[in-house]
Amino acid sequence: MKSLKRDLYNRAFSHIYVERDIINHPNTVKILSRFPKSGIIEINHYKDVFSRSNQSFSMQKKSPSLILAKKNDNFLYKGAPVCQDFGNNHFYYTTLVMNCIYDCEYCFLQGMYSSANIVVFVNIEDYFEQVEKILQNHPVYLCLSYDTDLLALEQKLGFVQEWTSFAERHSGLTIEVRTKSSNFKAIENLKPSENVILAWTLSPETVQKSFEHNTPPLRQRITCIKKAIDKGFRVRICFDPIIYSKDWLSSFNELVDITFTRIPADRVIDVGLGVFRISRDYLKRMRKNRPDSAITQYPYEYDNGVYHYGRKLSDSIISSACGIISKYMPYEKIYIWKEAEG
Amino acid sequence: MINIFTALHCEAKPVIEYFGLKRHQDINGFQFFSNGLINLLITGTGPINAAIGVTSLCSVHNPDSGDILVNIGICGTDNPDLKKGALILCNKIVDLSTYKTYYPDMLFKHSFIEGTVTTSPVPVINKCEGSKAESGIAVTDMEASGVFHSGALFFQPHQMFFFKIVSDYKTGEQLSQEKVSELVAVNAAPVFNWVTQIHNRLPDKQDIFSVEEKSLLKQTSEALKLTVSMQHQLNQVMLYHKVQYGSFTIELKQFLVENLKEPCKSKNEGKKYFEKLKKRFV
Ligand code: SF4
Q: What pLDDT score was predicted for residue A252?
């Protein structure tokens, strides 16, 4: 097989597509100023680039472009029953950015989107307005980093900072920023607050090395978590998704031990836990995009539109993982992702 | 395979010479040149001819993921900073008759000037509305949108490259065929060195199983009396094993020798061994 060397590719974001309507938006101007060497291409609508037919997700991932756009509707989505809501009644998520700078082989985004380019919606003020409207009726728990890793992009976008100051002014709002980033610099100037949760996803070293491409190593993430806790941030740890392999148990054991010997468990607000599962349509695309991945090619069991490791195996993984975590965390602080019934 | 499309023979001539292409039988009336690795088709002028030309060639020589499309030809511009002979790699194509825009992916490093090409169905003289609306480097041609429109049926956006060479300033100036060939000839080496480098490294489409693997899988499913859906499962199990551990043939042969000296007598018996096989290979 002919192989493509990395030096053949443009660096990430060498090209930035900008919707004509938001070319002078303050966030556009700010973001573009952080990419002085990138070529700018004006577009009418982000979908003209993002939703082209027959794109190669895996090729674009080698040199992703940035697309700056305006979101016109659907600023918030009500969490589906299958979402892990950590006991919150008014669980919402939002799409500020579509796609991610990391490249995890199990990521559902490669099954969801036809493009690996990263879309950033710059009109953050419209999201704020929508949240304020809902807050008039009830509190809101909002997951910000759903279709991306927002913290990993913080030095280019500054969105986490804008949202934390917004949350500070709105006590009914709790925001969760899920991340694999280890870049403490991105948050060191943020003010920790009661209604901001930083949620780190941790995976065994072998999983990180083999399947979570471009992500920071486990130990760096743990160091960053420790610094965040010391600074006063509320931190959640997510062991999700657990990827099965013949030796998953020993690597998971090691992961939990490393985590909680470095991070005081009593200063972590809770732990999320889940086994890898993926919708049929997403897996179909993922297999096409990544035919040589042990994650996409695992012979999963199928029911109700979802591929999974099989009830028996999934249950046994969860119960073993729970047992391991419970050495450090009380059971009531362990939230398990449950599959939807029916 | 690199598939090159030009509108005119005088644009094609330097490319034919550069690669040593030989004339082959016309395809749907389009002049066609090839050396087995490089194809070139002369589409005639205008986006409709270009679209039909691309479809004609690609229907006969169906491209795959390791192949490339190149559209090269002359263009006009309003931009006096672009000298005659300047080479533009297009990152955006605007069709002047539909105002549809097309975007080739820009994944590969290069040292060309990038810009927008506006495709008009008729020659553009003087200021043209479409190109005026484009900021930055903008040129006008008569084929790019047609080539992209049809090319997208056969190629992914990162496999298509559009090169335009400035030949006039839309003043109605008539260029001789020799002059056009000269402008393309000067740019042939930089364009095709770069394109060839990408082509050499673009991954070809590969079969997931080799011939030997396929025949072993067939033998296994016959020995186990597998249903069609179980055959799919077997393929998936073995594909996983191959991806995870590099190969499955030796181990599967061994499994067959150890467990199935004779083929299973019933589907039920086959099912039992299939469960055993899954446990061993997953
Ligand atoms: S960090 Fe999350 S969003 Fe980013 S690629 Fe990995 S799984 Fe996907």
A: 98
